[in-house]
Amino acid sequence: FDVGRKPSIQALEKAMGDGTPVFLVPQIDLTVEAPREQDLYQVGTISNVRQILRMPGNNVRVMVEGQCRARMMCLTGTEPYLTAQVEEIPTQSAGRNSARTEALIRSTYELFQQYVEVGPQTSSDLLINILASDDPGYIADFVAQNIAMRNEDKQAVLAELRPVRRLEKLHRLLVREVEILALDQEIQNKAREQMND
Question: Are the C-beta atoms of 16 and 48 separated by less than 8 Å?
Fold first, then answer.
């Protein structure tokens, strides 16, 4: 992801230099320049910073590796960057999949395949990655991070701690995204036909 704010860049550089993880949590409203606790979601991801690339215009592109979900308990500082007390959220196991969960997983596979076929710049290797899993939580997380959808939708998937519920939520969002892509393609085809006429 890209980062433009100086305090965020400082925090990421410090974490990478020290080899310590960072807690990544999105803002509720991206237009707030100096976010406070009420401007941030509570659930985020503890991640390790793998690479920082300088971009034109004082921005940086950051590659991170997520480790686990975590909840922000409270902000503990604002200078030179935000610091917070964070509590790791234990991973919940879905246990053995019921027939209903299996059906949901298969339906998600099919929807994701449709998305990959019509989606912009989506690698078919992504499909292989989810086909190799029968863990509803992993499938929901993997699909959510690899498709283009609104940040608040991704946040809703991240904040759902129960694996089967998380996959149900992702499935509903994926249905909408596939419909949007199909409509987008239909609009583009009609525009192309009109141009050709």
Answer: no
Q: What is the pLDDT of residues 81-120, one digit of tens each?
A: 999 999 999 988 767 889 999 999 999 999 988 888 877 6
What angle (nearest 5°) sits at the alpha carbon of residue 25, between those of residues 20 and 28?
Answer: 160
The CA distance from 134 to 91, in Å, is 16
What's the chain look like in SS3? Answer: CEECCHHHHHHHHHHHHHCCCEEECCECCCCCCCCCHHHECCEEEEEEEEEEEECCCCCEEEEEEEEEEEEEEEEEECCCCCEEEEEECCCCCCCCCCHHHHHHHHHHHHHHHHHHHHCCCCCCHHHHHHHCCCCHHHHHHHHHHHCCCCHHHHHHHHHCCCHHHHHHHHHHHHHHHHHHHHHHHHHHHHHHHHHHC
Distance between CA 128 and CA 45 in Å, rounded? 25
